[in-house]
Amino acid sequence: MYLSRFLSIHALWVTVSSVMQPYPLVWGHYDVCKTQIYTEEGKVWDYMACQPESTDMTKYLKVKLDPPDITCGDPPESFCAMGNPYMCNNECDASTPELAHPPELMFDFEGRHPSTFWQSATWKEYPKPLEVNITLSWSKTIELTDNIVITFESGRPDQMILEKSLDYGRTWQPYQYYATDCLDAFHMDPKSVKDLSQHTVLEIICTEEYSTGYTTNSKIIHFEIKDRFAFFAGPRLRNMASLYGQLDTTKKLRDFFTVTDLRIRLLRPAVGEIFVDELHLARYFYAISDIKVRGRCKCNLHATVCVYDNSKLTCECEHNTTGPDCGKCKKNYQGRPWSPGSYLPIPKGTANTCIPSISSIGNPPKFNRIWPNISSLEVSNPKQVAPKLALSTVSSVQVANHKRANVCDNELLHCQNGGTCHNNVRCLCPAAYTGILCEKLRCEEAGSCGSESGQGAPPRGSWGLLLFTGMLGTASPLVF
Q: Degrees (nearest 5) of the Cα angle 191, 192, 198?
């Protein structure tokens, strides 16, 4: 009896949970940059694509209001309650903490009652427009992973634009328009995200869904991130491989969900009628109690940790990369052009680690390694690290003086893409890779590399490396 009752309750709980949570709370993998694996040669590092966890990004932003003096309370003023717009005995006073409504109250913990909120001055200068720009800046590139949610304590504005920047606020582009009448306000036909598709997911739309004027039950405005993800990953985001594949191969899609700054442009407060009541202008203002922005630091799939230090976010880069976004190879690790990591193949992706530069290795005797003189390497393209080799400059005497030249080791000449070094003479490569240093995709030999396979062609400059390591093979035969 008790068992059947327990099973019934459990089934009910599973059903309710699935309804209440249409999307998984945490989606995706890529939380480890490298792991040790055991091979015939012992423990070795296996590298993979990685990224920081999604988190509440409002903890790291700076907020700026324009005009700067738009916050209410200086001088003190009265305003009308939202529930009863003709009860105008509420006071905003910046000099009294209990009556002040500064901008930081848009981002504080919203568990108290009454709610804390930022509030603008009232529309006392009507008919001059009451317009406010709220700029959220991270001084870092971030990737959005969940809906942007803005909760108003006043009525939702009649007209608003959400904008984004990818260059730290130098230029702006619209994300979405919001209005009670899109055609009248922005000369756009009203749409919702449900009207979009995979092919139109990047379209900038105007929606009337979140602009119902001066009502008490409708406070929230959304910018739907997950609904756009769902066009590729399915309604419950179960097919993440499809979304990752699109993000990997479509730069415009990836950039659409990437920002350095967001700007909320409040253009007209909630009026609720056709005409503004000029006798009660204290009822018109903006008030925001909460803004939610979830995302992660953009680290180009080369880091799992993003550090906040001295009011600045920075990726802790792996894979021999460096920079705020892990956007370049470290010094002495420029043996091939830098590349972001790849989500594919699922579930570990491809690390695309930076490899040592030929010029940084030289010919140190203690490693018993043969390298041609740097002056003999002809670089055909300054941006292409791998050089052309002038074979005639490597003397046969230099090779003859060494019984065996190292092709790989665990110090400077690392096997790539999870390969392991066998007795310093060859790399034991994973099934998907081949080449002297496992730097070449095996699918290339079959001519099947492409977007469908999730694997790309090897980076430019690999042929120079192959030629060079092949030349070393004259000193000691390689076994494949």
A: 105
Q: What is the DSSP letter of 280?
A: G
Going 412 to 413 to 419 to 422, the CA torsion angle's sign is: negative
- Residue 347: the pLDDT is 86
Q: Which is it for the CA torsion 39, 40, 42, 47, positive or negative? A: negative
The sign one gets for the Cα dihedral 222, 228, 229, 234 is: positive
> Is the CB of residue 437 less than 8 Å from the CB of residue 355?
yes
The secondary structure of 115-164 as a DSSP string is PP-EEBPPSTTTTS---EEEEEEEEEEEEE-S-EEEEESSPPPSEEEEEE
Looking at 374-464, which runs of residues are DSSP E strands?
377-378, 388-389, 420-422, 426-428, 433-434, 440-441
Please report the pLDDT score of residue 55 as a whole number. Answer: 95
Task: Single out the residue of 256, 287, 291 nearest to residue 270, CA to CA.
Answer: 287
Ranges of residues in the chain with a pLDDT under 70 are 1-28, 82-86, 110-114, 212-217, 273, 359-407, 409-413, 444-480
pLDDT of residue 223: 97
Q: What is the dihedral of CA 251, 351, 430, 471, to 10 degrees?
A: 100
Q: The dihedral of CA 408, 346, 325, 202: what is its sign?
A: positive
The C-alpha atoms of residue 172 and residue 164 are separated, in whole angstroms, by 6
Chain centre distance of CA 274: 42
pTM (2 d.p.) = 0.70
State which amino acid sits at residue 321. Answer: T
Collapsing DSSP states into helix, strand and coil, what is residue 278?
helix
Within 8 A by CB and 6+ apart from 136, the residues are: 58, 61, 62, 63, 261, 262, 263, 264, 291, 293
Q: Which of 295, 286, 308 is nearest to 65 (CA)?
A: 286
